[in-house]
Amino acid sequence: MLSLLHIENIAVIDRADISFDQGFNVLTGETGAGKSIVIDAISAILGERAYRDMIRTGTNKASVRAIFTDVPQLSWFADNGVDYDPETVIQREIHLDGKNVCRVNGSLVSVSILRKLGMQLINIHGQHDSATLFDEDNHLTFLDAFGDNESLRAAYTEKYESVAKLRREIDKMTMDEGEKLRRMETLRYQIAEIEKAELEAGEDEALEERRKILQNAEKLSNGMDTAVECLYGGDESDGASGLLAQAEYALARLAKFSDSFASLHDRVSDLMYQVQDVAEEVRDARDDLSYSADELEQIESRLDVIHKLRRKYGVTCEDILAYLDKAKKELDDIEFADDHLEHLKKKLKKAEKEAWDAAKELRKNRQETAVTMADRILTELAQLDMPRVQFACQFTETDLTAAGADTVSFYMSANAGEALKPMSKVASGGELARIMLAMKNVLAEKDQVNTLIFDEVDTGVSGRAAQKVAEKLRSVAAHKQVLCVTHLPQLAALANTHLLIAKSERDGRTYTSVTPLDIEGRKKELARIIGGTNITATTLKSAEEMLRIE
């Protein structure tokens, strides 16, 4: 759960430390006091987009730090090389130049990597999320999130990708006759040009190495003459080999008188034999060195041919030969296109049948899931004072798509006797808020996220419905941590922890503070929510009753 949030220099919040408890936490305050800023800060720590205008005026950076306790050992830690700690600390700095610095347990991570962790720690349900219910493109996503159909979807995806690949291959082979003839002519020319060169793999590298030797043959010959003389000696001087032989002989005599010289003799002896071997190799290389102007001219001519092919078909001889194989295959595919096309169509027919079979299995699972999900949603809605609502998922068969062969639409009737219609056409603002809450609660049962945040999702709800929403959030908070930004006294009254967001002015600057309320503070805040700024004995009494103070 989220236990501590530290905020610095975000909007009107200069500095704030906010402690959250397990259970039901509410945040209240006047409009514009900064409640949404707290939610924005939490979003930033979860890897969501952060803007430079979040940074408090007069400062060059903003920072947020969050401490999560009882964090499960998620695979994310090992996958990203971050030390696991059940008390996980996340830090994020947002700089004016756009730079973001993110750390998890002291390890630097990117914003995108942080986002993957954040999705597993907290779910934030904003006041605008209900709009996603109007978009039927999202309905299948909701249904699959509730269902346990990962294996069926994976099986279908594999079959669909085979179909899509075959369709692309068939489309590629289906060209008009003129285009086909032009392409065949081009390929035949390219194949003939490459084959005429009779290239060998690695030929270009070998030729360039030989050219280098021939271009520097005189220098090589002179250098090897010098090396041989130094190693073997000449008319007027001993070479290294002779000098080492003399040293070896002298040390051999010394070794007779003292064992300490024995190892020195052995080392010099090894050096002598090594020098002799090198001398022989250099001499042989010198004797084998041969060159002619004709050979160099032939190499230059051959490299010129290879260079021209390089510009067209690849960087190396291997690349050019690979292009040759590819061109031959493409030409073969075109020349025998009818045969290939017929073969591909047969494969496609088989693949489509397999994909449709997988799609039907997936549809059956989705239809069964839809009944279960509808029952769960209706149960939730009854608890939210909407007992007469009807809810159903309507399926429409489509062609094969990446998501399956179905579209799903949520239909409902808000009142008894009314026909089911698309949700967007029948739900009021308050009804939609409760439907979204019901769906979020149902889906939350399927994931392992332990903290849920509701940002004014009670908009449009009042009276008895508000009390039902409050009781529902309180019941959810029995097994998950719930944070809720609200303007409703019914919700605030049922909280386990009540935080007041307040705005003040000092030295011409605006500051926002976050204060945990005791029982007296809660009573006053509830009275303000009920009656506005004019707190009376009546509103205080109502607040006291809502808090069930004896």
Question: Explain this structure to me?
Answer:
With 550 residues, this protein is of the alpha/beta class. Among the domains are: 1-20 and 32-125 and 456-470 and 479-514, Rossmann fold (3-Layer(aba) Sandwich); 203-315; 518-550, no CATH class. 55% of the residues lie in helices and 18% in strands. The protein is built from 19 helices and 15 strands. The strands form 3 sheets. It has a 6-stranded antiparallel β-sheet, with helices on one face. A 6-stranded mixed β-sheet has the order 8-12-13-3-14-15. The chain has a 3-stranded antiparallel β-sheet with strand order 9-10-11. Helix 11 (293-313) packs across helix 12 and helix 18 (519-531) crosses helix 19 (537-546). The longest helix has 47 residues, at 337-383. The protein is flat.
What is the CATH architecture assignment of the domain at 1-20 and 32-125 and 456-470 and 479-514? 3-Layer(aba) Sandwich
Low-confidence stretches: none
Termini separation comes to 32 Å
Beta content comes to 15-25%
Shape: flat
Strand order of the largest sheet: 2-1-4-5-6-7
CATH superfamily of the domain at 1-20 and 32-125 and 456-470 and 479-514: P-loop containing nucleotide triphosphate hydrolases
CATH level 1 class label of the domain at 1-20 and 32-125 and 456-470 and 479-514: Alpha Beta
What is the makeup of the main sheet?
6 strands, antiparallel
Separate helix tally: 19
Q: Which structural category do the helix and sheet elements fall into?
A: alpha/beta
| Arithmetic mean pLDDT | 85
The count of DSSP E runs of length 2 or more, i.e. the number of strands, is 15
Provide the helix percentage. Answer: 55-70%
Stated plainly, the CATH topology of the domain at 1-20 and 32-125 and 456-470 and 479-514 is called Rossmann fold
